[in-house]
Amino acid sequence: MRRSMGAAVAAVLALVLTACGGSSETAGTATSGASAAAAADTPLKVGVSPVPHAEILKYVGDNLAAKAGIKVEIVEFADYVQPNVQLQEGQLDANYFQHRPYLADFLKSKGGGELTYVQDVHLEPLGLYSKKIKAVTELANDATVALPNDATNLGRSLKLLEDNGVITLKEGAGTAATERDVANNPKNLQFKPLEAAQLPRSLEDVDAAVINGNYALEAGLKPAGDSLVLEKADGNPYANGLVVRPGQENDPRVKKLAELLAGPEVKKFIETTYQGSVISSTG
Question: What is the pTM of this model?
Fold first, then answer.
């Protein structure tokens, strides 16, 4: 009797499933599809520096994201550390503020952890600025020059000075160069490493400062016109790009955002808005 009742219950369940348009396997597939749709509808939380990254991402969010089927939530940071820390901790889905050498140095200095660089978006040329002189040749003997103190941008700033005939670095110093790698300093310049965000404010107290492009723009400086010397874009390894946790590069939302950031609309926005002070990585 119990066996007959069990069979009857099974038969009723089968009829119900058939009437609903599928089996238990189909129901599971439908649930999976609903989860995927919900995930796609969840905003992609991206950590950025205010300028130009937040401005570029806001343009994407306001003009391109909806049509592509994604939502973007922008989280701004005033430093270069927390966007990576919060991405590693899962508080962010992605970040967009850094170049490959900085990311590699960050992961090395923090003693572990992984993050994945997805693609380049733009270059912010590093520049030398001053409120006291009008040309790099006017740097006086014993002048003080402020530099960004994070490892990769410090080496990058010294390379900028070398490329413009101010100093000479030891052979093979590369992107990890520090003041100790200066082989020839004919004007006996005094170098003052500072937190990158402080460099624009330092212009009142030093003779010149090498300033990251985003902080120069935030301070109202125009790299293409106000800098004494500016990095060249050709062959430059310091393009800023999109970064995620390993595996998240396959997230459909990340793929769509990457596609938008590399698209012609964003390239045109960068060229029109920044007039050479920010350079699109799209050919």
Answer: 0.76
